[in-house]
Amino acid sequence: MTDFLTAGKSGGMFVMVCTYIGAHVGNGIVVGGAQYGAEYGIGGVWFGLGACLSYVLFALVMSRLLYTRGYITIPDLIRDRYKSKFASVLMAVLNICATLGIMAAQIMAGCALFEALGLNPTLGGVLMAVVVFIYCSISGMWGVMMTDSVQTMVIFFSTIFCIVTIAMHGGFDTISAALPESSFDFVPFTGERLVMMMVPGALNGLISGAAYQRTASCRDKKVAFWAPMIAAVALIPFVVMPAIIGMYGKALFPDAPTASILFKVVLSDMNPIVAGLMIAAVLSAVMSTMDIGLLNVTANAVNDIYYKTLNPNADEKKLGRLSMIVTITSGVIALVLAISSSSILSLLSSTYSLMNAGALVMVLGGIFWKKGTKEGAIASALCGMAMIILNKCGVEIPYIAFTSLVPALIAYIVVSLMTQSKGIKAE
């Protein structure tokens, strides 16, 4: 089971950098970045810059500790630190919910592509998901690493070809002439909007289940640290280029829906070769993010909840069969979420906010504060999630990405101090 989830700790630098890039350069950055470029101009890059920052934070704060202690998932850390099965299961459930939201956002972009091509979007999403199910179920993390390496190269060169084509068509002059001056403002919106675009994704880097699993798959501690750092820098072109494509699309097709502006540009203004490459890039982006998500859900459900909590005597055959069932079930749930949602980046932002509110204080407190207890950890998770749920139910809470952490932190400190006799100090 461990080798299935970590590829036998065989990940070298190039492969791991590609898997880190592939996980973030999904359609939140590619398709969603183009949408934000059309809506906000160059200021649409802030969501992607938050993604870059997330890897820097993860490398500096978490990577060496996780690799040294051998944690595969976030619940592994919680179980070891707090000696609490309930806290571990709570974290696993929270991470599963967040990961399903991330996967759904990728499927949404894939469905939009099939719709733009005049095909059945739901059927396209199902077929796309089935391909990912197959190679994840058969080869685990090894399959994820190999396919992500290829998919990242496809995305990189396709996006560059698209930008070169825009330049050859005089696209930058078209953008300058057609768009208002506000499109060239680096921060064209309110401070709260900036915070919600950038901060949830950046903070999520500290508690990304997929990043934990990638770290556990690294060959050594050097790779574990430098792979996310290099990926953060390599992501910057992926952040800027989709925003430019979105601005170009807005200049050419001012009345086109911004959610599908990337496809409008590709199918209407690119030659068939570049269009084909970009279609391949979008599909690659979907799969490169979905695959690690599926594997992470499987790790949480099978390894953390079933094997380590409910049935520690389960054999490899039974765990393998259960992994297959979980993979298929989680894919179906993500597909349903995708069909019922309307905005890729809004869904991602909400997902990151929920995960941050429920997990960030519990994880960082457990690492940096020796007096934290399991009761404090559980209280912080429940308080943080309650804030997000209240906000989604219509209660106006400004800067929810930050403010949700305040009651979580207060609950963690107060409850931990009240339960010191029961606390388990960090090593």
How is this structure best described in words?
The chain has helices at residues 2-6, 13-24, 31-40, 46-69, 74-82, 85-116, 121-168, 171-178, 191-204, 209-216, 221-252, 261-269, 272-310, 316-340, 344-368, 374-392, 400-403, 405-418. By secondary structure, the protein is mostly helical. It has a single domain (2-346), classed as Hydantoin permease (Orthogonal Bundle), CATH 1.10.4160.10. Helix 6 (85-116) runs antiparallel to helix 13 (272-310). The radius of gyration is 21 Å and the shape is globular. The two termini are 27 Å apart. Residues 422-427 have low confidence and may be disordered.
Structural class: mainly alpha
How far apart, in Å, are the first and last alpha carbons?
A: 27 Å
| Strand runs, count | 0
CATH superfamily: Hydantoin permease
DSSP helix count? 18
Query: How much β-strand is present in the residues?
Result: under 5%
Biggest sheet, open or closed, and with what strands and sense? none
Cα-atom radius of gyration = 21 Å
Shape: globular
Question: In a nutshell, what does this entry contain?
Answer:
By secondary structure, this protein is an all-alpha fold. It has helices at 2-6, 13-24, 31-40, 46-69, 74-82, 85-116, 121-168, 171-178, 191-204, 209-216, 221-252, 261-269, 272-310, 316-340, 344-368, 374-392, 400-403, 405-418. 79% of the residues lie in helices and 0% in strands.
